[in-house]
Amino acid sequence: MKKLSLICFLSIISLLANAQTKSQAQLFWDNLKALCGKSFEGKMLDSTMVRDFAGKRLVMHVRACDDGTIRVPFFVGDNKSRTWVFTLKNDRITLKHDHRHEDGSEEKQTQYGGTAPNAGFANLQMFPADAQTASVIPSAATNLWWVTLNKEKFSYNLRRIGSGRDINVIFDLTKTVESPGAPWGWKD
């Protein structure tokens, strides 16, 4: 009986130690991954950049999750061209923007984004524009994206440093909505 109690005690200590050693990036990742399969409606708080979002239904669908990649299509009305692609590698999260035409082919301006310079926080990750972004969209070389995540809200934000142009979209995580279907280039 003592041996069984000791084994149980050591197992609990091991679980607690593992929980305490998770990095902030891993905690953020786990929280985002917990939303997999769910869709949420959002609203534009402020946008000086994207006029075509005005008056349209905004929905994010945490659609595909595996150990290293989480794909989140972002629907703007009937436009299904945008997918946020998060990857986790070496305790750093990368955010890329996958843009597709209706036939599934890549748009000219796609695969741009950046990698968090550090582990960030469990509820906030920041992504400064990388060299690929500067080559694909030279005016976006000063972009800074950040995503916040807690039990009630997910926010996607963009500020183009020095331009006064920004985007702020907040999604309500307290209620799910029906997914608008597969994004362009995907199959259900």
From TrEMBL:
Keywords assigned: Signal
Domain of life the protein comes from: Bacteria
Name the UniProt record assigns to this protein: Secreted protein
Organism: Pedobacter flavus
Endpoints of the signal sequence: 1-19
